[in-house]
Queue: 2 jobs
Job 1
Amino acid sequence: MNHVADIAAGRLTSDEYAANFSDVHPPLDRRRALIEASRCYFCHDAPCIEACPTGIDIPTFITKIASDNVRGSAVSILTENIMGGACARVCPVEILCQEACVRNTQESKPVQIGALQRYATDHLFDKGVQPFQRADLSGKTVAVVGGGPAGLACAHRLSMLGHDVVVYEARGKAGGLNEYGIAAYKLPDSFAQKEVDFILSLGGISVETGKSLGEDITLSQLRQGHDAVFLGFGLAGVNALGCEGEDLDGVANAVDYIADLRQATDLGALNVGRRVVVIGGGNTAIDIAVQSKRLGAEDVTLVYRRGAEHMSATGHEQEFAQTNGVKIKHWAQPKRLIGQDGKVKEVEFEYTQLDDNGRLMGTGDTFTVLADMVFKAIGQTFVPAPLRNGSAEMLELTNSGRIAVNEDRQTSLADVWAGGDCVPGDDLTVAAVQDGKLAAHAIDRALRG
Amino acid sequence: MADLRCNIAGVTSPNPFWLASAPPTDKEYNVVRAFKAGWGGVVWKTLGEDPPVVNVSSRYGAVNYNGQRVAGFNNIELITDRPLDVNLREIKQVKRDWPDRAMVVSLMVPCEEEAWAKILPLVEETGADGVELNFGCPHGMSERGMGSAVGQVPEYVEMVTRWCKKHTRMPVFVKLTPNVTNVLVPARAAKAGGADAVSLINTINSIVTVDLDVMAPTPTVNGKGAHGGYCGPAVKPIALNMVAEIARDPECGGIPISGIGGISNWRDAAEFMALGSGSVQVCTAAMHYGFKIVDDMIDGLNNWMDDKGYATLDDFRGAAVPNVCNWKDLDMNYEIVAQIDQQSCIKCGLCHIACEDTSHQAISAAKDNGARRYEVIDEECVGCNLCMHVCPVDGCITMRRIDNGKPYMTWTEDPRNPANMEAAE
């Protein structure tokens, strides 16, 4: 009998990998899209529009689907949200537009806005159409730091408004978390790169990869070389557990593993444990837990220090993890990671509860979970180092340690704007796109005086 | 259990649900299937003179609305394309096998007395219960001087009806075309000619859709299309009005009516009956879903009649006719205003925008911290019902009567009527 190691690659057949990492929500065909579109009431002052961070005119785009004006529908979406294709796939619609749908009140079944948005945007992408044009050129150039949703949204809108844009991207590809961070089955078939190509096909945007702020380029240089700067470089740091055994083999940051998975050409070459423990309660925790299971892990246990209602992963995501065979344990925090021969073997958790002041405390009771791999997913942090000039901050940060911006996403420096995860607010693709769009319009106003 | 037996102009059937003269009644095979399913009667698809007509390929067009297929339907099919003797033989056999079901035979021959005199005895010989004169078919046959070409000329209607009454003892139903400005004129002509009943409506001249690629109407026959006859749920309101006009016309003298036009279920049928129809005829719904639909028609009508305490069809037939009046006889003092049930309101805002953009600005829109609230401004509301109709929640918007203590006052009596002003001067 073949012995399979506790951490091993190739646990599944290639067909199983393909099935496990294909589109988690297959697209609507025309017939189903028309039926779903017919459910939209075309509300006045529609609550769904208000619930969309980018303010997409949802009833209008759905009406256009219903009349088979699918191209018009896609343009309505992309006008407000150039990453409408990715957002249709990754947005937590259950807490945004679909939560606001009036059909919930009536029948607890919202219009499937996300699926319809995908139907419309896919149609345009499949035709390879770039429906936007650039305005008369202004002769101005803008530097965008970070090729993620915030940066690309800003770049596309700036280019439309007539400005030339250079995007500086630290990694090898643009796309940001859509390329490196989102669960693979949410954006299969290289969708993130297709979307980047679509955005760049407008023209006027050049992307310089491998350019990291603070290492390869500095903010001062960018300010000198461009008429304005937009910072959208996200969160570079990962929170540590701060407990014994964190450096054992088999312990990894979820975001690093997901980035590897997203770039893997052969999923069968990825090592995954027989028993996987995930620590954290956000979407990254859900994504790594489910992907571990889908890579063939036998037991995946997600442990969160508070209750289900406190998890930043939506109820929908939690349920998705559970239906994928992930066991979720609430009210426990890691106490130590126990190793053998330098490899993690189990994790000791302490039960938690809230004290009389509502603060989290350990109860003193413990339990252990066997683990061959442990993924840390307890949040990412903003690393301000690239913005320092010596020891002095070049621009103002908030108390929470992110870049302070005003309503226009302008920083404390008059010619520098910022958006996406590196500024306060929801860490969502759709919120990042809105930041980039708003900043682009503010930059345009500033440059045109 | 209510008694659904129907008697119209002496033609009896176990229930009032008949299949209209159309493809479902073109031959023995279909009609036997219909009778097995429970249909009370049929009007056999229109017979004509031999040689039989020839039909084209591609015959039906449909209007699909918001996901509902065949909300409206049209056809360019002509009368039966089978030899007369085949049809007559089958009619005879079916009537013999199903003696309790109504067997009415639709006829269309040229506008010459001898043509009618020749075909009527042949039909009578089958044992059929009655004939229906097809004066309604608006396409194809009308180009040959038959169908609606007859129905649109009241003198012809009367003349042919009279011939038929002269040449047969069978009850004569005259099927009326809606493609006229006033259906009362041909209806009165049928009555004058001695018709025992009228059937209406036949189909409406129509082009259901234009194929924007072929640039031709549908159904498209090798790149071209001709107008067809429109039917199905979409035409029901037109049919109901025409039935009501005849039912309340003193000159028509209470002539029995076989109601036709978009009847898809028992409720539609009950509405036609409330406006005076005896039997009702169905076609599109059967062509869409098959003969089985008659089960709910019978069952549903029965249950509704039991609920209402109606023992027979006559107990409610025509009950709504006295309440169909002219506009000038409506009560000018009747006042209602819309009322929104805030508990069931889902905040779609459709009532507000409909009133704001297109009516009387009588529904306010307020937003408090994201919570929407729509309220009727009683002083501005004219009681038009628009909001109630656009509201997607049943029962959320209702119309509340304002008790103003004023008596029933018609426009004729209204002092605001210019005629009355002049009189007062």
Job 2
Amino acid sequence: QKTIKWRMQTYAGPALAEHVVKPAIDSFNKIAGDRMQIELYFADQLVPTAELFRAMQRGTIDAVQSDDDSMASPTEVTVFGGYFPFASRYSLDVPVLFNQYGLNEIWDAEYSKVGVKHLSAGAWDPCHFATKEPINSLEDLKGKRVFTFPTAGRFMAQFGVVPVTLPWEDIEVAVQTGELDGIAWSGITEDYTVGWADVTDYFLTNNISGAWAGSFFANMDRWNELPDDLKELLKLTMDSSHYYRQWWYWGGEASLRVNGTKMKLTTIPDAEWDQVEKAAVKFWDEIAAESETKKKVVDIFKKYNADMQKAGRPYRYS
Amino acid sequence: MSYELIAILMFSAMMLMLMTGQRVFGAIGFVGAAAAMLLWGTGGSDIPFSAAMKLMKWYPLLTLPMFIFMGYVLSESRIADDLYRMFHVWMGPVRGGLAIGTIGLMVLISAMNGLSVAGMAIGATIALPELLRRGYDKTMVTGVIQAGSSLGILVPPSVVLVLYAMIARQPVGQLWLAGVVPGLMMAGLFVLYIAIRCHFQPRLGPVLPAEERDIPLSEKLSLLRAGLLPLGIFAAMMVPFVNGWTSLVESSAIGAMTAFLAAVLKRRMTREVFETSVRQTLAISCMFMWIILAALGFGAVFDGLGAVRAIEDLFTEQLGLSPWMILILMQLSFIVMGTFLDDTAMLVIVAPLYVPLVQALGFDLIWYGVLYTITTQIAYMTPPFGYNLFLMRAMAPPSISIHDIYRSIVPFVAVMVIALALVMAFPQIALWLPHAVYSK
Amino acid sequence: MPRAIELYVRYVEAVNRRVGRIAMYLIFVLVGILLWSSISKTFFLPSLWTLEMAQFMMVAYYILGGPYSIQLDANVRMDLVYGSWSPRTKAWVDAFSVLFLIYFLGVLLYGGLNSTIYSLEYGERSPTAWRPYLWPIKIVMCVGIGLMILQAVAEFFKDLGRIRGEQL
Ligand code: NA
Ligand code: NA
């Protein structure tokens, strides 16, 4: 029997992929052996990230790891992928939202409409600013050209941030060549892992989202062709990837804040940052007004955050 | 089909296609497209166009037409004539002085543009006829101009280093700075070679006759002002860039604008100069961009079919070589491939294969960028395939035969190999300047 | 050569020359956009649109200028062997090898049309804060690649002409 071969491209470059996806795919390949091999490609390696969705839909690439936002999925839920402002506070919020609050079903339905299988969503790191100049107030954010996600960029533009989108692998260079003043794309673990800590000096401890939401996707036909046991193995693989990231980021964020030497920490006082949180509530309503599906998702976010609030400590402290 | 077989098949098909003399982008693009259609499976037909979208997002490529335009404005408007006079008068009294002055001229031209084309054009049109008229040895001066113009891609700004930076994902600013000292060192080695040769064989580079040297000091000093122009253009472009006020692509636009304004102010921007500069910029930019487009598509197919893994496996596992051996082997393979592959295509196809390997072997990618550029320069100059050779053949007066051109580069290539060896042995030659400037 | 072919070559070359001559001035638009980018960054708030607009301009520049660059004979060939052939041999080989070029351009156009249809169907926007629609630039690319094919076919006819000793 012929070995099934998949090409999977991740949004992440090699240094980051080493943690967010590669260990899981290596395990998969070891176990599946001659029956199936997934060849992993990194950011922009076969196709540019913005073309990922289309390439997968057409079958040029069999599977993708990315958030919905960066790969520009033509779905109603795209805006919620990546960093939807203040939708999550901890990385455990993401799997709970998907598995217990009904996001899985909505995602599955939306992607089925466009010929793509939504396989599994997981949590990544929080969204902080890493900048060349210190950010101590909202005023300091004005006019800063920052690499960030499309939706996060749309949201932060009201505070004078100028969002710039470039190929992921070019960011470090772009900070050095002056194309960018900073990055609002990750937590401190990634800043150190991918080298951004070498080109920026300051890390803002306030974040606009507690955890990134990203997913694995596959071309619908390729998925349907898989035998059931390989489907099962792929699910376990993705869960092991999600689990790895849970501890890798959670531990990394704390450890580098305490022990990291490359970036100085700055903080915008809570009272001032409150403006941003308030703006997010407004932003949610704007998005909800755009369509029925979006309203459904926003309502779930609202319900979830209200529940967490009621549950009190340790779920929410304020 | 095994990965090795695909790698061999695609490379030999490309070689064969290139041999037919079809346009390089057509030959490479065809092999990429055909392999995608035959071997990829579902969706393979989308890859060539997907490469076009990838190319669109490669923002540092915006500097390419800017630097090409700059080069054409500089050479077509002949605003470098004064510069040449400056070197001519100041260096005339020395044995081989005019040739040495030409190297100096080339260093300044290099600081104003990112390719070797402008240096070559200026050297061949201004310096070459003068040098021949003064009885300089034709083989020597042909070599001087080719070697000197090759500095264009090592001394910042440099298009080759921009391309390398995109492929290796390394900061352009650091790469440019890393090219400065090796570039100047190489210029110094050229000068040393000329001086020594002419010292022992004065007939190769006779001193100027006494009556020509008799120029009042005041006039000599006023000629130095010509040196302000390149300094001004270089500063207008590089100062805001290094300080982070403008980005790389913005700086290149400032450079293009400054060169254009300089030509207008010096009343050299005639209708004809304007037409030639604008038209040739389009022609050369199109040549580069279409080759890069085709090569990106080829590269994605090559990679997606597993051929890249095969080559990496060959170097690291199967041959069982030490990192330095692999590095030297890679440098040699560039020169060999330079004999049949167009230089831009070589950059876009081969560099993505080698860069991850270099990184995996633990070498510094900024340092490798400089090695890479010097090797590219050597490839530019070694027969039978090389831009500098082509350009020289097109621009040289009829008295200089193709054999003279081939012969002329021998000693200079030797000097470049020495420079390459020095940078390999002492990485600090390349690295101390970027480290000094960018150390946090 | 049949009159239809002569007319084809003449018209295609005229159109491509005109399109290329217009595209060639886009270099100044490109300079303008990049200068505005640095000016707006220094004195006002940086513009959201400059980088992407410059990228679109660059693509239009080299894709639409492509056929004219073929007319200008700017595209390098490897002339190690080719250079030593007689004009007639060159014409024979060119007439054959240009078909490979046409094949490449055909695949490129096929991918481009698919991509453009997708853009129109889903109202695809660039995933950036400026969020421009992508169909305009994709249409420009398809038109440019289409013109490139027309030019390559004209080259084929010109090669046939050369084999028969006619200058088209
Ligand atoms: Na240069
Ligand atoms: Na060569």
